[in-house]
Amino acid sequence: MRIGLLNGGGDCPGLNAVTHGVVGAATQLGWEVVGFRDGYEGLLPPGDYKILDHEKARGIIRQGGTILGTTNHGHFSSKHGSGEVAKIPGELMRQARSTLSNLGVEALICVGGDGTLTTALQFSEEGFPIIGVPKTIDNDLKATAMTFGFDSATQVVVDALDRLQTTASSHKRVMVLEVMGRHAGWIALYGGIGGGANVILIPEIPFHYEEMVKVIREREATGNHSTLIVVAEGAAPAGKGPVIEAESVDGEYRLGGIGDRVAAELQRRTGKETRACILGHLQRGGSPTSFDRVLGTRFGVHAVKLIERQEFGRMVSYQRYHVGSVTIAEAVSQLNLVDPEGEVVETARSVGISFGD
Ligand code: F6P
Predict the structure, then answer these.
(1) What is the CATH number of domain 2-148+288-331?
(2) 3-class DSSP state for residue 52?
(3) Per-residue pLDDT tens for 278-332?
(4) At the topology level of CATH, where does 151-285 sit?
(5) Catalytic residue at 162?
């Protein structure tokens, strides 16, 4: 038996751990794994791929990025603008199917976020045996309690805050750290709590500058002359939309720029020196944490088990400490956003963190 594997969308620490899991489990069954390069692009005839054996997978569990390459645009992009879904043209689908059949690939594991899984769903609906594996540092997929990559990304935020705290304290400054997450505030929330932020701004809770000014002044009055603020790239003041940094080649929006705006506005209103730091792709690079290595491996192994049991059209999912699966149809387009009234936000408020609201 030959199975295919591809990584789609933005990269994410833990992708290679999934590959490690897939290759390990498939090899034990005597199957061969065909790894397609650069996501679905590798399916374009004649096929851009490498055979993944034990030798190729050796040591990759600790590697960041993806040994297969990936892209978050290209011929098979099914998400455009602010998330509108577009069907992949029939001719392209036919070409991809012919590559798979010429190579004798009988099932395909697609590792990716919402866009990659939406394309996977189209393959599945057209009758090709597909398994989805969820991947996103943003942790914004509803059908899984956690994705690998999120823990590694939040660890980068925590490390950054630890460093910003010392310089903020030396200079008695306000430091604003802008983090990723698109329309979900999970990275800012977890990173902010773990890194001891005083204010966390997330897309799910519109903020008011005056509230932050109050926090800074109250801190000053109690002898705390520095303040750490984490702002998610999708956060916005009440009544305003998120800041769009740029449009990518296929028309999908890229968020970014709110950190500079918050810093400038707070300096203007408080007169305190304020600096912004944009963490950017540092959150996606580097080695995965132990949690992400283990979760990625479990996801990869489970994907192979689903193929063995012929349970196609399903996405691996992590719920209640257990790796299982849901249908891909159930998984796509359902965003997992932070509940403003939920327990994690409540925990943050209980330890004195403000959401600027
Ligand atoms: O979805 C993951 C993510 O890192 C988002 O948090 C961020 O908005 C986006 O991808 C950045 O994409 P790119 O790598 O294209 O700049």
Answers:
(1) 3.40.50.450
(2) strand
(3) 999 999 999 999 999 999 999 999 999 999 999 999 999 999 999 999 999 999 9
(4) Rossmann fold (3.40.50)
(5) no
